[in-house]
Amino acid sequence: MPPSDHDPIIFDASAGIDRLLAIMAALRDPVTGCPWDIEQTFASIAPYTIEEAYEVADAIARDAWGELPGELGDLLLQVVYHARMAQEDGRFGWDDVVRAICDKMVARHPHVFGAQSRDKSAAQQTQDWEAQKAQERGAAGVLDGVALGLPALTRAVKVQARAARVGFDWPEVAQVVDKIAEEARELIEARDTLTPEAMTEEYGDLLFVMANLARHLDIDPEAALRAATAKFTRRFAYIEARLAEQGRRPQDSDLAEMDALWNEIRAADRARD
Prior knowledge:
single chain, mainly alpha, Helix Hairpins, 3 domains, 12 helices, 68% helix, 0% strand, extended
């Protein structure tokens, strides 16, 4: 189809969100749209939504400010995509999405948009936010509403935080550490007698308590693990580079040699710190 047959707003760089909505409508047009886009469903698009959110977080972690507008645009496209599909199904539309978040922000910020005083700390505002969310949940269970699609460690922390707000929590970090030691010991002692399913359950228990320790220490476990993985990747690349200087690859080496190179880059990291 020639460009002139499309809504002119699609080619108007100054049209803002209306331009994106028009583009999505054109892509999803059952007659003239893109075959791939037409075939998509909520379920097929959801993984892309999660992936784009991670790419936003990655750009921020790398201080890649030049990339961030594009990554945020990719994430915004996901919201528009879901809203368009919902509109086609007669469920809701873009305006409903915008209205829902606007109403929520106003309702949850009475110290900004209402008569409530702004004279309180960020911590108190967080408590008020959670209290408002609990009120909105009404009679639902304490742990209801924690999204199943969250990364496992993040969901574990959120579930634990909900339970802690009603008093179900270890009061001391030392108790969490003791539980980690207990779970690790049970896992090792039983590894030769448990079924694979039981081993997985025991390992899950250990990870769950590790997430609890992160919460007690005010650490984001997802961020901590990403950083540890990035550090491992960088240090292993050093091993590969050093071996490549000799015309060799890791598979041509052995653990003792690679471990020595690992200690070399680790010492250099510590010297820089």
